[in-house]
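Hi P.,

Sorry for the delay on this. The queue was packed all week, but I finally got your sequence through. Input first:
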Amino acid sequence: MDMYRFIIRLAFVSLILFIGLGSDYPESNAQVASISTTLPELRSEILEQLLEQKPEISLSYDGDRAELSKQFPALIRDTFAANDYIAYIVDSYLYTIRTWGTSAKIKLTITYRETAEQTRHVDQLINQVLPSIVVDKMDPLEKVTYIHDWIVEHVAYDTTLQRYTAMDALETGSAVCQGYSLLAYRMLSHAGVESRIVEGKVDSGSHVWNLVRLNNGWHHMDVTWDDPLPDRPGKVSHTYFLVNDRFMRQDHSWEKAYPMTR
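Then the structure:
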Protein backbone atom coordinates (compact mmCIF):
# COMPACT_ATOMS: atom_id res chain seq x y z
CA MET A 1 0.00 0.00 0.00
CA ASP A 2 1.41 3.41 -1.01
CA MET A 3 2.68 5.59 1.80
CA TYR A 4 0.84 8.68 0.59
CA ARG A 5 -2.55 7.32 1.54
CA PHE A 6 -2.82 9.22 4.79
CA ILE A 7 -5.87 11.03 6.14
CA ILE A 8 -6.60 13.57 8.80
CA ARG A 9 -9.21 11.65 10.75
CA LEU A 10 -12.56 13.13 11.68
CA ALA A 11 -11.44 15.74 14.14
CA PHE A 12 -13.76 15.51 17.08
CA VAL A 13 -10.65 16.08 19.14
CA SER A 14 -11.09 19.07 21.42
CA LEU A 15 -13.95 18.13 23.67
CA ILE A 16 -14.31 19.87 27.04
CA LEU A 17 -17.26 19.48 29.38
CA PHE A 18 -17.78 21.78 32.35
CA ILE A 19 -20.88 21.35 34.49
CA GLY A 20 -21.22 24.38 36.77
CA LEU A 21 -23.79 23.05 39.21
CA GLY A 22 -25.07 25.85 41.38
CA SER A 23 -23.12 28.57 39.52
CA ASP A 24 -23.62 31.91 41.20
CA TYR A 25 -24.04 33.92 38.03
CA PRO A 26 -26.47 33.65 35.13
CA GLU A 27 -25.62 33.80 31.47
CA SER A 28 -27.31 36.70 29.76
CA ASN A 29 -30.49 35.69 27.92
CA ALA A 30 -29.33 37.89 25.06
CA GLN A 31 -26.59 35.34 24.40
CA VAL A 32 -29.00 32.42 24.21
CA ALA A 33 -30.49 31.81 20.78
CA SER A 34 -32.86 28.98 21.62
CA ILE A 35 -34.62 27.30 24.53
CA SER A 36 -35.18 23.53 24.48
CA THR A 37 -37.06 21.40 26.98
CA THR A 38 -36.21 17.91 25.67
CA LEU A 39 -32.99 16.33 24.42
CA PRO A 40 -34.43 15.69 20.91
CA GLU A 41 -35.33 19.39 20.68
CA LEU A 42 -31.83 20.30 21.80
CA ARG A 43 -30.26 18.00 19.22
CA SER A 44 -32.41 19.47 16.43
CA GLU A 45 -31.45 23.02 17.38
CA ILE A 46 -27.74 22.19 17.49
CA LEU A 47 -27.93 20.42 14.14
CA GLU A 48 -29.76 23.34 12.54
CA GLN A 49 -27.02 25.74 13.59
CA LEU A 50 -24.26 23.31 12.64
CA LEU A 51 -25.67 23.15 9.13
CA GLU A 52 -25.27 26.94 9.03
CA GLN A 53 -21.66 26.39 10.17
CA LYS A 54 -21.93 28.80 13.06
CA PRO A 55 -18.66 29.01 15.01
CA GLU A 56 -20.49 29.62 18.31
CA ILE A 57 -23.79 28.13 19.40
CA SER A 58 -25.54 29.21 22.60
CA LEU A 59 -28.61 27.44 23.90
CA SER A 60 -30.75 27.20 26.98
CA TYR A 61 -32.07 23.87 28.24
CA ASP A 62 -34.99 23.73 30.67
CA GLY A 63 -35.31 19.96 30.87
CA ASP A 64 -33.82 17.39 33.24
CA ARG A 65 -30.31 18.66 34.02
CA ALA A 66 -29.08 15.33 35.41
CA GLU A 67 -30.14 13.62 32.18
CA LEU A 68 -28.48 16.39 30.18
CA SER A 69 -25.20 15.85 32.01
CA LYS A 70 -25.40 12.11 31.42
CA GLN A 71 -26.51 12.14 27.79
CA PHE A 72 -24.90 15.25 26.31
CA PRO A 73 -21.50 13.77 25.31
CA ALA A 74 -23.22 11.09 23.21
CA LEU A 75 -25.82 13.55 21.94
CA ILE A 76 -23.22 15.99 20.66
CA ARG A 77 -21.21 13.24 18.95
CA ASP A 78 -24.34 11.90 17.26
CA THR A 79 -25.40 15.38 16.21
CA PHE A 80 -22.06 16.13 14.58
CA ALA A 81 -22.21 12.79 12.78
CA ALA A 82 -25.75 13.38 11.46
CA ASN A 83 -24.47 15.14 8.34
CA ASP A 84 -21.38 13.67 6.66
CA TYR A 85 -20.27 16.93 5.08
CA ILE A 86 -20.38 18.81 8.37
CA ALA A 87 -18.79 15.90 10.22
CA TYR A 88 -15.72 16.00 8.00
CA ILE A 89 -15.20 19.75 7.86
CA VAL A 90 -15.25 20.15 11.66
CA ASP A 91 -11.70 20.45 12.89
CA SER A 92 -12.37 20.67 16.62
CA TYR A 93 -14.96 21.75 19.14
CA LEU A 94 -15.44 22.37 22.83
CA TYR A 95 -18.49 22.98 24.94
CA THR A 96 -19.42 24.30 28.37
CA ILE A 97 -22.57 23.73 30.37
CA ARG A 98 -23.48 26.10 33.19
CA THR A 99 -26.51 25.75 35.39
CA TRP A 100 -28.58 28.58 36.82
CA GLY A 101 -31.75 27.90 38.71
CA THR A 102 -33.77 25.37 36.76
CA SER A 103 -31.98 26.06 33.46
CA ALA A 104 -28.74 24.96 31.88
CA LYS A 105 -26.83 27.27 29.54
CA ILE A 106 -24.86 25.48 26.83
CA LYS A 107 -22.18 27.05 24.70
CA LEU A 108 -20.37 25.32 21.85
CA THR A 109 -17.31 26.75 20.13
CA ILE A 110 -16.52 25.07 16.82
CA THR A 111 -13.56 25.35 14.46
CA TYR A 112 -14.28 24.38 10.86
CA ARG A 113 -11.76 23.48 8.19
CA GLU A 114 -14.13 25.12 5.72
CA THR A 115 -16.13 28.21 6.65
CA ALA A 116 -19.76 28.78 5.67
CA GLU A 117 -18.61 31.32 3.09
CA GLN A 118 -16.17 28.83 1.62
CA THR A 119 -18.85 26.14 1.45
CA ARG A 120 -21.11 28.54 -0.42
CA HIS A 121 -18.21 29.13 -2.81
CA VAL A 122 -17.84 25.35 -3.22
CA ASP A 123 -21.51 25.18 -4.18
CA GLN A 124 -21.06 28.04 -6.65
CA LEU A 125 -18.10 26.32 -8.28
CA ILE A 126 -19.98 23.02 -8.47
CA ASN A 127 -22.97 24.78 -10.04
CA GLN A 128 -20.62 26.23 -12.65
CA VAL A 129 -18.96 22.96 -13.65
CA LEU A 130 -21.72 20.41 -13.11
CA PRO A 131 -23.77 21.27 -16.24
CA SER A 132 -20.72 20.41 -18.33
CA ILE A 133 -20.35 17.05 -16.57
CA VAL A 134 -23.90 15.71 -16.20
CA VAL A 135 -27.26 16.47 -17.76
CA ASP A 136 -30.76 15.74 -16.49
CA LYS A 137 -31.43 13.00 -19.05
CA MET A 138 -28.56 10.92 -17.65
CA ASP A 139 -29.49 8.05 -15.38
CA PRO A 140 -27.93 7.95 -11.86
CA LEU A 141 -25.20 5.51 -12.88
CA GLU A 142 -24.06 7.81 -15.68
CA LYS A 143 -24.03 10.79 -13.33
CA VAL A 144 -21.91 8.95 -10.77
CA THR A 145 -19.51 7.75 -13.47
CA TYR A 146 -18.95 11.19 -14.95
CA ILE A 147 -18.55 12.85 -11.55
CA HIS A 148 -16.06 10.18 -10.45
CA ASP A 149 -14.04 10.61 -13.62
CA TRP A 150 -14.12 14.42 -13.47
CA ILE A 151 -12.72 14.44 -9.93
CA VAL A 152 -9.94 11.99 -10.84
CA GLU A 153 -9.02 14.11 -13.86
CA HIS A 154 -9.11 17.48 -12.06
CA VAL A 155 -7.74 16.71 -8.59
CA ALA A 156 -4.28 15.42 -7.68
CA TYR A 157 -3.33 13.83 -4.37
CA ASP A 158 -1.80 16.33 -1.92
CA THR A 159 1.48 14.72 -0.90
CA THR A 160 2.10 17.58 1.58
CA LEU A 161 -0.95 16.37 3.54
CA GLN A 162 -2.19 19.94 4.06
CA ARG A 163 -5.40 20.14 2.00
CA TYR A 164 -8.45 18.41 3.44
CA THR A 165 -11.58 20.06 2.02
CA ALA A 166 -13.70 20.24 -1.10
CA MET A 167 -12.70 23.90 -1.28
CA ASP A 168 -9.03 22.86 -1.41
CA ALA A 169 -9.75 20.31 -4.12
CA LEU A 170 -11.59 22.82 -6.31
CA GLU A 171 -9.42 25.87 -5.72
CA THR A 172 -5.97 24.25 -5.73
CA GLY A 173 -6.67 21.05 -7.65
CA SER A 174 -5.11 19.09 -4.79
CA ALA A 175 -6.36 17.34 -1.65
CA VAL A 176 -5.94 14.30 0.57
CA CYS A 177 -8.63 11.61 0.53
CA GLN A 178 -10.85 13.65 2.86
CA GLY A 179 -11.00 16.41 0.24
CA TYR A 180 -11.68 13.93 -2.56
CA SER A 181 -14.52 12.34 -0.58
CA LEU A 182 -16.06 15.66 0.47
CA LEU A 183 -16.03 16.91 -3.10
CA ALA A 184 -17.59 13.70 -4.38
CA TYR A 185 -20.23 13.88 -1.65
CA ARG A 186 -21.10 17.48 -2.50
CA MET A 187 -21.13 16.99 -6.28
CA LEU A 188 -23.25 13.87 -6.03
CA SER A 189 -25.69 15.72 -3.78
CA HIS A 190 -26.00 18.49 -6.37
CA ALA A 191 -26.65 15.83 -9.01
CA GLY A 192 -29.42 14.26 -6.92
CA VAL A 193 -27.48 11.13 -5.95
CA GLU A 194 -27.36 10.02 -2.30
CA SER A 195 -23.96 9.21 -0.87
CA ARG A 196 -22.11 8.76 2.41
CA ILE A 197 -18.54 9.22 3.61
CA VAL A 198 -16.95 6.11 5.07
CA GLU A 199 -14.18 6.27 7.63
CA GLY A 200 -11.82 3.32 7.92
CA LYS A 201 -8.26 2.13 7.60
CA VAL A 202 -5.84 0.87 4.97
CA ASP A 203 -2.32 -0.46 5.37
CA SER A 204 -0.84 3.04 5.54
CA GLY A 205 -3.29 4.39 8.14
CA SER A 206 -6.66 6.13 8.36
CA HIS A 207 -8.59 6.68 5.16
CA VAL A 208 -12.00 7.86 3.94
CA TRP A 209 -14.01 7.15 0.80
CA ASN A 210 -17.63 7.21 -0.36
CA LEU A 211 -20.66 4.99 -0.41
CA VAL A 212 -23.05 5.71 -3.27
CA ARG A 213 -26.71 4.71 -3.40
CA LEU A 214 -28.05 3.66 -6.76
CA ASN A 215 -31.35 1.95 -7.57
CA ASN A 216 -30.13 -1.52 -6.65
CA GLY A 217 -28.44 -0.55 -3.37
CA TRP A 218 -25.24 0.89 -1.92
CA HIS A 219 -21.76 0.66 -3.48
CA HIS A 220 -18.26 1.71 -2.41
CA MET A 221 -16.44 4.35 -4.44
CA ASP A 222 -12.87 5.34 -3.58
CA VAL A 223 -12.04 8.25 -5.86
CA THR A 224 -8.66 8.76 -4.20
CA TRP A 225 -7.47 5.25 -4.94
CA ASP A 226 -8.75 5.50 -8.51
CA ASP A 227 -6.43 8.49 -9.07
CA PRO A 228 -2.86 7.42 -10.00
CA LEU A 229 0.13 8.80 -8.14
CA PRO A 230 2.16 10.54 -9.41
CA ASP A 231 -0.74 12.25 -11.12
CA ARG A 232 -1.15 11.17 -14.74
CA PRO A 233 -3.41 13.58 -16.65
CA GLY A 234 -6.21 11.78 -18.45
CA LYS A 235 -5.61 8.50 -16.63
CA VAL A 236 -8.67 7.28 -14.71
CA SER A 237 -8.91 3.95 -12.91
CA HIS A 238 -12.20 2.27 -12.01
CA THR A 239 -10.77 -0.41 -9.73
CA TYR A 240 -12.63 0.99 -6.70
CA PHE A 241 -15.68 2.25 -8.54
CA LEU A 242 -19.03 0.94 -7.27
CA VAL A 243 -17.68 -2.21 -5.65
CA ASN A 244 -19.13 -4.28 -2.83
CA ASP A 245 -18.06 -4.92 0.76
CA ARG A 246 -16.34 -8.18 -0.08
CA PHE A 247 -14.11 -6.56 -2.70
CA MET A 248 -13.40 -3.52 -0.53
CA ARG A 249 -12.38 -5.56 2.50
CA GLN A 250 -9.41 -6.92 0.57
CA ASP A 251 -7.47 -3.75 1.44
CA HIS A 252 -9.89 -1.48 3.33
CA SER A 253 -11.41 -1.99 6.77
CA TRP A 254 -14.02 -0.14 8.81
CA GLU A 255 -15.73 -0.62 12.16
CA LYS A 256 -18.58 1.88 12.12
CA ALA A 257 -22.00 0.73 10.94
CA TYR A 258 -22.64 1.70 7.33
CA PRO A 259 -25.24 0.48 4.84
CA MET A 260 -24.32 -2.95 3.48
CA THR A 261 -23.42 -3.16 -0.19
CA ARG A 262 -24.43 -5.67 -2.83
